[in-house]
Write a structure and sequence with these properties.
Largest sheet: 6 strands, mixed
Strand order of the largest sheet: 3-5-4-6-7-8
Low-confidence stretches: 1-10, 14-67
Radius of gyration: 21 Å
Number of helices: 13
Oligomer: single chain
Structural class: alpha/beta
Mean pLDDT: 86
């Protein structure tokens, strides 16, 4: 699969645990980075309100600029840096360009809206794909006088940039879904494993399920999911459920054989299969056990949302999964396609939301702007993906829907909730 195809299928999870591992495959070019691929909301501002922009943004795609130069867009008095990979590894650079385009689209929305003040100017800087590039871009942003830094997208780059922004006491909102990189004055805007697991656990508990178990790949992200599974199961009132791990999908048969007696007895009545690559295989093996589908609810992850083959797999019919409401992405799709000549990747709503958030009057025009007390407003904010909030530890909570796979694909079973 070529880089062009990859770039249009980036999901929030694709930028999760580490830039070190780019997993091959046509279902999203998965990045083991440091959430739902890369991966919004907020209390009192106008983030995501109203219709998608009708004008204001320039109609040309952003192109990488020489190192050390920043491209500006917006006309407001508050400087905000946007640090993205615009050069380097091709697929990631294409993603960075798409996120920059989404930020420009958001600025166009602000400029075209008579009821929204133009409070910020975006300074776009290229981080390349290395931690050193991110640190250099962050240093340049500080020299620009940035009061807030948005990006980068990978966990390693966020950590590198944060070492610069923390020293300058400037808040940073990164786009990876690895909560481990969050901390004082460093926030992550994405769907985190804890958020997915909490939403799914509460839902199955309310549906009367009592015995969740989970199957997780033996990877850094799989370990993060397994930890979140354990923590959120306990928080939801379950006894610690069975956790199975695998290094290769060839181990699937053995795991299902081991779980079969507990599924037959009802001790396992919900089986979490968050790994998109192996979910269909495990589901088929569960079906082969003869255990009634009504006895064991299969539960996926937000990473399932944009995999048509997975959603059409008969073995997964009836399975549920938490997901971001796709209304926000659908709302910006026509304008993005018209202005930039391609469909927006799933992660475009993150950069769009972050830009609108940065422009909110009560954040950008405060003294000082973007303080922790303001950014961690417990009421949250309304972004392109729906309601979200930042916690004091820098991690974000996302309002997620519960979707269910049927004969015609996935439909929303339960509305978005934090």
């Amino acid at each position: 699969m070529g880089n062009d195809a990859k770039a249009t299928n980036w999901t929030r999870r694709s930028v999760m645990i580490g830039l070190a591992t780019i997993l091959a495959g046509c279902s999203g070019g998965t990045f083991q980075l440091g959430s739902r691929n890369l991966t919004l909301p907020w209390g009192t501002g106008s983030a995501g309100a109203g219709s998608s922009p009708g004008g204001g943004a320039t109609g040309t795609p952003i192109t990488p600029m020489p190192s050390g130069n920043a491209q500006r867009f917006g006309r407001g008095p508050v400087p905000v840096a946007l640090i993205l990979p615009l050069s380097g590894e091709p697929a990631l650079a294409q993603l960075g360009t798409a996120l920059a385009n989404a930020s420009r689209l958001a600025i166009g929305f602000i400029e075209a809206s008579p009821t929204i003040g133009e409070n910020i100017t975006i300074f776009l800087r290229d981080s390349g794909t290395s931690p050193a590039g991110a640190a250099s871009a962050a240093s340049a942003a500080i020299r620009d006088g940035a009061r807030l830094v948005l990006g980068p997208v990978t966990a390693e780059q966020i950590s590198a940039a944060a070492s610069v922004t923390r020293a300058a006491n400037i808040p940073l909102i990164g786009f990876a879904n690895n909560g481990a990189v969050a901390g004082p004055n460093v926030y992550v805007l994405n769907v985190l494993p804890d958020t997915e697991m909490k939403r799914a656990m509460v839902y199955i508990r309310d549906q009367g399920r009592r015995g969740p178990a989970g199957v997780f790949p033996a990877t850094p992200y799989g370990e993060a999911l397994a930890m979140a599974f354990r923590q959120q199961a306990i928080a939801a009132g379950f006894s610690p459920g069975a956790v199975y791990t695998f290094s290769d999908v060839s181990e699937a048969q053995g795991i299902i054989n081991q779980a079969k007696p507990q599924m037959e007895s009802g001790m396992i009545d919900a089986l979490f299969l968050p790994d998109r690559a192996s979910a269909a295989r495990f589901a088929a093996l569960v079906a082969q056990t003869g255990v009634d589908k009504d006895f064991v609810q299969l539960v996926g992850s937000a990473d399932w949302a944009n995999d048509p083959a997975l959603l059409a797999d008969p073995a997964l019919r009836g399975a549920i999964f938490p997901a971001v409401d796709d209304a926000g992405l659908n709302a910006i799709r026509p304008d993005y396609q018209r202005q930039f000549g391609a469909a927006p990747p799933q992660m475009a709503t993150i950069a769009y939301t972050a830009t609108i958030l940065a422009n909110v009057n009560t954040l950008s025009l405060a003294n000082p702007p973007y303080s922790q007390a303001l950014l961690t407003n417990p009421s949250g904010f309304a972004g392109r993906d729906g309601l979200f909030r930042f916690n004091a530890n820098g991690r974000s909570d996302y309002a997620l829907v519960i979707r269910q796979i049927g004969s015609g694909g996935a439909t929303t079973l339960d509305a978005a909730k934090l």
